[in-house]
Amino acid sequence: METPGSQSSLHRANLERVVRAVRLAGSLTQAEIARTTGLSAATVSNIVRELKDGGTVQVTPTSAGGRRARSVSLSGDAGIVIGVDFGHTHLRVAIGNLAHQVLAEEAEPLDVDASSTEGFDRAEELVNRLIAVTGVDRSKIAGVGLGVPGPIDVESGTLGSTAILPGWTGIKPAEELRGRLGVPVYVDNDANLGALGELVWGSGRGVRDLAYIKIASGVGAGLVINGKIYRGPGGTAGEIGHITLDESGPVCRCGNRGCLETFAAARYVLPLLQSSHGTDLTMEGVVRLAQGGDPGCRRVIADVGRHVGSGVANLCNLLNPSRVVLGGDLAEAGELVLGPIRESVGRYAIPSAARQLSVLPGALGGRAEVLGALALALSEMGDSTLLDGSLPAATPAFT
Fold this sequence. Notes:
Elements: H1 7-25, E1 27-29, H2 30-37, H3 41-53, E2 57-64, E3 67-74, E4 80-86, E5 90-97, E6 102-109, H4 116-134, E7 141-148, H5 173-181, E8 185-189, H6 190-201, E9 210-215, E10 219-225, E11 228-230, H7 261-264, H8 266-269, H9 271-277, H10 283-291, H11 295-319, E12 323-327, H12 335-348, H13 351-356, E13 358-361, H14 368-380, H15 383-388
Parallel strand pairs: 4-7, 7-8, 9-12, 12-13
Antiparallel strand pairs: 1-3, 2-3, 4-5, 5-6, 9-10, 10-11
Helix pairs in contact: 2-3, 6-14, 10-11, 11-12
């Protein structure tokens, strides 16, 4: 029996500290593990050797700063995580291992607003199909990350706004999917998962404080503070789309007037172009036309960028992030939208905060949220399960 402060309990804590650092980063050199954990180089070397001998990690030659080094990652067969991303018009599922390798990924169109039952039926089918395709061992599944396009109430686990997904009223997404798949499910909103995805795999790598702004049917932000998603006590942090820009502006779905969302979200922006461009126009189409020189589309994108920049300036003044990553279809517009965002930030943000901020397009495109769901499952699983080989076994509900 281990006692607190004993050598055995200290060794166990150090093992878990190293496993956690590698699990969250995907791969680290031994020097990076030492810096991340605060452990000495000799202790890290001994722990990595022990973990390698036990099959928990794999070590591969690499280079760092022009010198030979050893990259440490979790073993590819140590466990499996699954990401499920519900968008308003799509469903995307990915399967990855604990070494941060994506083994399979697939997306299909889906009207998520219509019916939660249909959405979960399709998600269950797609998960099972990808498991069959990859041939992964179901007993190795450590957990599922689930993304939904709306805020999650932290206390109840239900969607916090029925105005966003009226067909999901009263639904507890994590509980529903857990009952179908028989493994732990961790849920978050799509903006937070986009932030996680870009933090681990994309434009947010290497920073500790960032905001991921997603512009789609709504406008939301995922906030990363000191390397962790900040959700707030009720889970609604990051609702940047409901910053008031004009008290006499259009009525928002939240009931207020002149929210940022009413000047930037697709449902409000596309009607501005319908008389000249038709009713079948999408944001993807607007971006494509703007890149081809269409003056109306370029003007609309620039206006959206300036409005979003006002919201970003507020974030700068309150939280002082070092990076803002833009996601959603509009990010594909590149400097056509990023330039106006930076212009507004320079105008409205505190100069010192504006100087420290970089504004970049997301590197992952439409994959950001599903990769963030994988990252969520990776971050929530316990390190002791890896060391003890006690991953939860899948139940017959998975077959």
